[in-house]
Write a structure and sequence with these properties.
Number of domains: 2
Strand content: 35-45%
Number of helices: 4
Structural class: alpha+beta
Strand order of the largest sheet: 3-4-5-6-7-8
Distance between the termini: 40 Å
Order of helices and strands: EEHEEEEEEEEEHHEEH
Number of strands: 13
Shape: globular
Largest sheet: 6 strands, antiparallel
């Protein structure tokens, strides 16, 4: 007898934003207050928007979210915390999930609020829904036809091929992956 499908909610399909996005958009500079709108779209159709305000001046920095969900206005704050970088230069920003209290770098909107992924039950990433055979096939396909992305990584502006006269581990790994993909074809 076949298993009844569950059709879980996929984290890949829901609205999300990350600390990296906020940094890229210059929201996380120290001692500033900045507000704006984040808009999501799929196939050039707007799927959602949210007004945000980031205050990094306060003793306890925060991100304020203001939007509507199913016609209901929603406004709340997500605390921001910093941790010293492991290399001793600068700080790493994190969200503090209002539901779980965990530090995280990405927030997902499965229900009405943007929360850490562990706040939701029954949600998965798309790759978790693939069967074991499909995962093996995707890995083989990537090895055989993914060399374009490998060459793209090699030609990036600040890619380091050597350090102190020796090839970097990343460079050696990319060259090995390129060789494997050539041998597959």
């Amino acid at each position: 007898m076949a298993k009844t499908p569950t059709f879980p909610t996929l984290f890949d399909d829901v609205l999300q934003f990350s600390v990296t996005d906020l940094k890229k958009w210059s929201y996380l500079k120290s001692n500033q207050y900045k507000s704006g709108v984040i808009t999501w779209s799929r196939n050039s159709q707007k799927t959602g928007s949210i007004s945000i305000a980031v205050n990094s001046r306060a003793d306890s920095p925060y991100l304020e979210l203001d939007y509507t969900h199913n016609g209901q206005p929603i406004n709340y704050r997500v605390q921001l915390v910093t941790v010293p970088s492991n290399i001793g230069k600068g700080w790493i920003w994190y969200f503090l999930c209002p539901h779980t209290g965990k530090r995280c770098r990405k927030l997902y909107s499965v229900g009405a609020k943007f929360l850490h992924r562990e706040a939701f039950t029954g949600c998965m990433y798309e790759s978790q829904t693939y069967s074991q055979k499909n995962r093996v096939l995707f890995r083989m396909y990537e090895k055989a036809f993914g060399s374009d992305g490998l060459y793209e990584q090699l030609s990036r502006k600040h890619f380091r091929r050597t350090y102190a006269g020796k090839p970097t581990k990343r460079f050696v790994k990319l060259i090995q992956q390129i060789r494997e993909s050539k041998s597959m074809i």
